[in-house]
Amino acid sequence: MSTGTVPHPGGSAPVPTTSSPRRPRRPAGNRLTRWIPRTRSQRHTFWWGLFFTSPALIGLVFFTGGPVIASAVTSFTNANLLGSGTRRWVGLENYATLLRDEQWWSSLFNTFFLTIVSVPLGIAVALGLALLLNWRVRGIGFYRVIFYIPSIVPVVASAVVWAYVLNPQYGVLNNLLGVVGIEGPGWLSDPAWSKPALILFGLWGTGNLMVILLAGLQGVPQDLLEQASLDGAGALQRFRNVTVPFISPHLLFAVITGLIAGFQYFTPAFVLTGGNGDPAGSTLVSGVYLYQSAFFNYQLGYASAIGWVLFVIIALVSIVAYRLMGRRVYYGGAA
Amino acid sequence: MTTIEKPADAGRTGAEPDTATLSPGVRPRQRPRTWPQIAESIAKHAVLITFSLVFLLPLLWMVTGSVKTQADIGAFPVEWFPDTITTGNFTYGLSAFPLGRYFLNTLLISVPSMLGAALSSAMVGYGVSRIRWPWRNGIFALLISTMMIPFYVTMVPLFIFYRSIGWTGTFLPLIVPTFFGVPFFIFLMRQFFLSIPESLSDAARVDGASELRIFAQVILPLCKPALAAVMLFQFLASWSDLLGPLLYLTKSSQYTLSLGLTFFQGAQGESATGPLMAVSTIILIPVIVLFFFAQKTFIQGITMSGIKD
Q1: Which chain A residues touch B57 with a CB distance below 8 Å?
Q2: Is the pLDDT of residue A286 over 90?
Q3: For B170, how many CA atoms within 13 A lie in the half-sphere containing its CB?
Q4: Chain centroid to CA A40: how far?
Q5: Residue of chain A nearest B273, judged by CA positions
Q6: Could you tell me if residue B251 is inside a domain?
Q7: Model pTM score
Q8: Domain range for residue A103?
């Protein structure tokens, strides 16, 4: 740690930039100099910023940046997992193959389908549950625990259970549907129902999002809600005009992380349907296809290309979502 | 989503003491006194109990399945209260599954990861939210963009990297990265930090406190709830991680509970549903016990927003 920057006398402690009259607010149009600290107080603040973010910056180099570059290089080669044969530069060949690969297109469709359905649905369900858990009734703490429990079950264990819950013959779900006179579908064995089955499994474990949204709901000032209802606002109006603005940071968080997780969907599809996209390729998502390419077909180069296309898609979709939503987010406490 | 309309003010007056609204869940408000209030309360409990059943039924099936015979597990309709209760699944499961060792291994990975993630994510989250420096937003955007990198892109190069420094076959690849900030938690901490008024930091700065002191003594104590949430999330993530241990742990004596269960499942196949459910049940119990204790911290965390301007 650079202790040299610490013992500043009180007077030169970093002051908000607005209160330094000597410096013009925009340094003479030069775009580059804006990123370089010049005054003593600016430099001071800069070192502190660097200090606090240093763990992530170091991690970025060793655990993310380096591997990403290595993977990018690999995507232009015919590298394989076994290390046999000569590793050759093949240019854009992997990417060209990708465009002609029907399995890849179908994996992309499956991924988009799961994401587009499960992100809004997941947020709606998590928010609905959070609203329930925000009721002030006796024993609400107990209900909160119950609602959250599915998300702490290790995926491996819950997959064991759900494989049987969704079993067409003797599973709990079809059993219950039978009680109300509905003949349940084949779920994980039916190509038309395997994706809804996975979405259902995801909704069951939505606890993390629910807790985050509940935290947001509890930040909504009660007096504002009461004021609104005194002014004659209905429940829906209060929800839209008071609750939603206050939980908008949490909703933004939910959408962005939901999209990212959706495009990287892997473990449930891998564990519940055997990791090969069964039935009939209906659960072959991009992550699973990539894994297959790397570890069953040993095509590291091709797998890297799949990963990179996925990365670009995720980045584009997230940026669009952030641009669309970020402007409307209301940070209640920030000055 | 009709539930939205539920928190109606049917008969509730604004005369309640403010403390009751600030800490819901810790001590719920007084007993309902009028008939509409009682009806409302019953309706709410009915809804909550229905959803509780939805969340609990699959687990209930797992737990009851662990003491059922193989024939009873496959019974149609489901026998919630089987006639024959057997402990055979547990004795068989435990004899085939070195639970104690796997438990210890999982703990040896989860606990350091939890501490590392909380410390580093709080630091970095602070650096990208409460220090006004020119790189703040750029670095934050960079970190968030790394969250979008599919893990499967970095998986193979990382494996080769860890192998080259001799870390494969140890717990290190599963622990050390958490000490360098987890983007998801950095995002979360930043959101919490941003909701704390800037005037609090400015006051401390005027008093001559260093950034490190403001971080450790002013801001961090306000973020205990967020920290607890990060710790719990990371603990559970490490606890149930499958892919990481699968990639890096080579000796069966190093396996974690999740990895052990997966191999147990593979080795036993569909014929051993009972033992499988028995082992799953045993794995689940400590997590649930921990969560019941952490629930208190959670409630605190959830009601943290009283510090707004």
Answers
A1: 165, 172
A2: no
A3: 10
A4: 40
A5: A160
A6: yes
A7: 0.74
A8: 94-326
